[in-house]
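Recall that a protein's primary structure is simply its ordered list of amino acids. Everything else, from secondary elements to tertiary packing, is in principle encoded there. The following example makes that idea concrete.
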Amino acid sequence: MTFDKYSQYYDLFYDNKSYREEVNFVVDVINSHLNGNFDSLLDIGCGSGNHARYLASFFESITGVDRSDSMVKVANEKNIPNFKALEADVCSFNLGLTFGSAIALFHVFSYLNTNDQVLTAFTNVNNHLSVGGLFIFDVWNTATVYNQPPQVKVRREKMGLKKVVRITKPKLDVISNTVDVQFDFIIHDNYECIEFSELHRMRHYSPPEIELFCWKTGFEVIKSCDMISGAPLSQDTFSATYILRKIKEL
């Protein structure tokens, strides 16, 4: 299970991520395309609730889903107003609710490695959106993965008296359009040393792939861009953001 033990240290390593800027992007999109309808939001792959923390001041209700029970626990312990996280898989959850908009940020859909998984997930999102509703998500961009292949990285952080080291080891699979990312953790806590690893298989996508998935699941692509700058996608855009509109029921 991904984000099991990792969940304890997740916020430590992503404390400097541009959550507020990404939320501003979402808010601007909804203002532009939904006339500022901030009724309800579905937060898919909500993780530890860091996007919801900033979105809560805009939306009347946010429902988060994540397949990691550890991350759901972390998110709910933050007591974010108007927000509730549930343990559920994007391919199979059924909330019996319809939302005005949905997000899946920080490469949630890159964790879907097969076409069947992607089509099932898109269909499930469609089933939880009103016609005309928006789906905003980001994924690894194929052009950038091949132009600038992921490299081994080492991060060192402190968590109280603990010294935490994370070693990221990516391995590219050009046949399956995936990258196996192994995270090795070394935690020094006084005289104790704890080590564990997690393997995250990440899929990257090209714009034509996303367009095909949309065509088959009742969506249209409104825009694709870099989320922070708003620039069009290029071989330098590692994280490709897509804004979709639901155009029909399935």
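The chain is about 25% helix and 40% strand. The chain has two domains: 5-140+205-246, 145-202.
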